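Methods — Computational structure assignment.
A single polypeptide chain was analysed. Its primary sequence is given first, followed by the predicted tertiary structure written as structure tokens.
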Amino acid sequence: MYGELSIDSRDSHEHVDRVHKYLISLEKLTRSARSNPNLRLTTSFNFFGFHPHQVQARFAQAILPRLTRLRRLAIKSPHIDPKTLSLLPRGVKLTHLILDTVTYSKHFIRFLENQPELCFLAVSKFQKPPAPGSTEQPLPRVIPLSRTALPRLRSLKCPTRAIPQFRNSPIVDLTFTCNAWSERHEPFPVEVKGDIMSGFRSVRGVYFLDCLDFEGIASVIKELPDLQYFGMNTSAVEFPLPWHLLGATPLRYIQFGDIMQLDYAAEMAADVFTSIPSVDVVDVYQDGYGLRRSFQRFCRHAPMGVPAQIYRTQWQAWWEPVARDILDVCANH
């Protein structure tokens, strides 16, 4: 019986054989799909793989129409055609949807509008056919999302310029990505800032996966009165950062998802504690990959760094696993 079904080319530790073993498993499941009763009982389906388009298409056509009880779907492959999602049985109502790169089209928007129970949506990148001679993928033309769509959406990850599309949903968790490499060091889009200030004031956690300018990030964070959790990747950030810009915010926790030299971690945490009186815990990435990572943890009342393991499922907001830790730290001091 499949409660959760995962087809993942990363599962094998045998690097030489893993692709071969993965493709064999994929082929077996594809061939047996029509007569496999367990697929109808699957509620959570995770599919990760880099493979020819025709393999993905054949697999999707065999498997997706039989997932009649599906609630959580993750498809992480180089490109997903939104029409693939329409292969799901008509009555399926997803609560969680994770996609790597998907074509931003009317088909995708209409699919979302037919998912009223969706509470978690993560899309790393929106795609359209590139212009001749270009490999960049700027955000395609905005296709309006109905004002009544996604009434339960609480956690959203998508390219920054698309976030205003979802301002009518009760979102409490936001993760910002860039849709093209050229956007990574541009100023934070003014038009997006205005929409966030007016439509996302209940947000409790934000994460910036790509390095937009810190002053722009700070100007957004200052307008979110319920924000407690802030995370960012720091691989291209120049330190020290002007943390005083966040001095009047209610932030309680800051996470650095990557960092060049751990030697500076204690100094950076001390700077945060000095500049932002409300922050109790700072976590600095140390090791690990994916959903299980090791951090160096600094607490306001115990400034020496200590190891901290953070494990989350892909169906959670990034800050949910540490929320209890923050409460415990505050209770003990």
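Note: The radius of gyration is 21 Å.
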